[in-house]
Amino acid sequence: MHTPVTIVGAGLGGLVLARVLHVHGIPATVYEAEASPTARSQGGMLDIHADSGQPALEAAGLTAGFRALVLEGREATRILDRDGNVLFDEPDDGTGTRPEVQRGELRRLLIESLPDGTVRWGHKVAGVRSLGEGRHEVAFADGTTVAIGLLVGADGAWSRVRPLLSDATPEYTGSSYVETYLFDGDTRHPAAAKAVGGGALMALAPGQGILAHRESGGTLHTYVALTRPREWFAAIDFTDAAAATARIAREFDGWAPELTALITDSDTAPVLRTLNTLPVGHRWDRVPGVTLVGDAAHLAPPNGEGANLAMQDGAELATALATHPGDAEAALAEYEQAMFPRAARAAADGGELYELMFGDDAPHGMVAMFTGAG
Ligand SMILES: Cc1cc2nc3c(=O)[nH]c(=O)nc-3n(C[C@H](O)[C@H](O)[C@H](O)COP(=O)(O)OP(=O)(O)OC[C@H]3O[C@@H](n4cnc5c(N)ncnc54)[C@H](O)[C@@H]3O)c2cc1C
Asked: Which residues bind NADPH (predicted)?
């Protein structure tokens, strides 16, 4: 009764989709460009939300496995100004509702929950085309092709499946992150570790900030946020780690040294993460036999929602397919009708959050939000 599902992309969205399909006995194949599960470091902590990521993992039957990955104490949040003054400090007292896990570990949990061979590693999709009547041809970078029925693009920002549905392409948000890591913070970088505290640190000013998180093993993982034109970043040679670090650090001249240490003392070369977005409210008319989940559908600037929404999309699409056996079109329509407004709302909220974090009133807007004064 159930059509096998072909998924492009083994990120959190595609993997949750495949897993929830498997729970319902629906076969799925995931084509992933990366050569193996460990081909790329998956760095970063994710807080898993009670209304999106957590129910998705529940639908995947993986709540216990997910809970075992939660890093205790990491829900602590503090907001500092550029001088290092602590304006807001909320410890993790164990009553928080947004447990933190390492993205790589969550991804591994999902991969290991799938039957062997579900994910076809090293299969970079070069393009897709419609064969009519809801069927598609997927072409891989190595020149091979497969003809398939139901197709789901879970292939992130630069989706190769999206053109079947929409002409939209991601545009630069006006801001980028530069990523650094300080390892073994408590012993090797104690002042920076103390500033970060037990969980997340936001040191904010108009147009820029330092966002750091304490990961496992005392690793201090930082995104240095800068609202600057794309050309400004293009003028920095990120292959010269020392010069790039110095250039980024210069934007934080006069900031407290325990904060700038998160840039200048990095144990890794700084990595530029350009932030792009699809239009808020991106949607499409129903096209037989194909849809999108996660960033492929609704890429937005990082606002703590993207991975959660991707997992929710995957779980809801799989559940819709399971409840409409033999009628994939009804399932896709049901999924999209709920997903479009949900994604639009999250993107709009994310825009407001960004304004609070890096707008003219920073850091006070965020403090007011956390204290309920704003
Ligand atoms: C710097 C930064 C920080 C973030 N922090 C957070 C956070 O704290 N919390 C949160 O919820 N979200 C966060 N996000 C957003 C989150 O990372 C994304 O929304 C989420 O990863 C989307 O999941 P996805 O499965 O849709 O896509 P992705 O995670 O992008 O996965 C797509 C997969 O498809 C594969 N792929 C791509 N192209 C092809 C192809 N042509 N052929 C085959 N495979 C392909 C990729 O290799 C990848 O494995 C952050 C984003 C950024 C950039």
From this structure: 40
